[in-house]
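Feature request, filed as a ticket because there's no other form

It would be nice if the structure record came with a short human-readable summary line next to the tokens. Right now we just get the raw output. Example of a typical job, pasted below so the devs can see what we mean:
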Amino acid sequence: MKVTIKNLIHQFPECEFHGNELETIEKAIGLKDSLGLLCKNSISWVSDKVADSIDPTQINLGLLVLSKRTYNKINSANTSFLVSEHPRSTFVKILTIYFKKIWPIKIENSAVIHPTAKIGSNCYIGHHVIVEENCVIGNNNVILHNTAILSSTSIGNNVIIGCNNTIGNYGFGYEKDSNNEYQAMQHLGRVVIHDNVEIHNNTCIDRGVLGDTEIHENVKIDNLVHVAHGVVIERNSLVIANAMIGGSTQIGENSWIAPSVSIINQIHIAKNTNTGVGAVILRDTKENSLMIGNPAITMDEYKKWSTVKKKLST
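Raw output as currently delivered:
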């Protein structure tokens, strides 16, 4: 990829530019990796916090994305500057426009696609992917290597699914019979994945028992996540690595499920809920709450009990 700074900054009229528009950008790099090196064909970004610890004389870039505050501190650096109110967001947009990996439109020979499965246009299906009977996969999707999409799963458009995922297998549901022995509960529902979802690697999403497991628009799911049967994750939520979401749980829109969070079954996570790392959620949450600890409590409850403990210890 090669782009002149003049053409690049044309995409960002809301930003303020200082420097040489005729430089050519060929790659994106981490700022700390470039310090002390001559990287005039490269672009990077810097946060206010990181910039406070950097010597500007060590910066030799083609273009640096940063805030107005940081620009005022390091504008002596040997680079051009793109000043943004939201520099990280601007940098992400630049990466998306100019550096996003473009997958070929093809189905690899080693993929196994059932004859009844429907695959939309402009898709890439990777090596050793399995798509079982009656699956529907929309347009502009990427499904990477060794992922299994089991029967009747429905996937919308512009979805990215990483490697080694299992989507649509039966869940962990058992009932004792008359001999007091566990018998598997049949899972007759589906997994439904809506548009613009991203699922990273080594994640399992189970089909519902009678209804569906649903992943709504723009949800992003990290590596090594377990989504049990009948879970509904509302739009624009993030589920981070090692999280476990118990069966029939509903996660409201725009929620953040932090690393290693555990949520027991049949919990309702209200919209705009944030969780702390390793939180164990045993009760429903309220909108706009922050849940921390094991068992998880709200931040207000944590502060209250901290005050009580402090008084008791004095």
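Something like this underneath would help us a lot:
The chain has six helices and 37 strands.
Residues 299-313 form the longest helix (15 residues).
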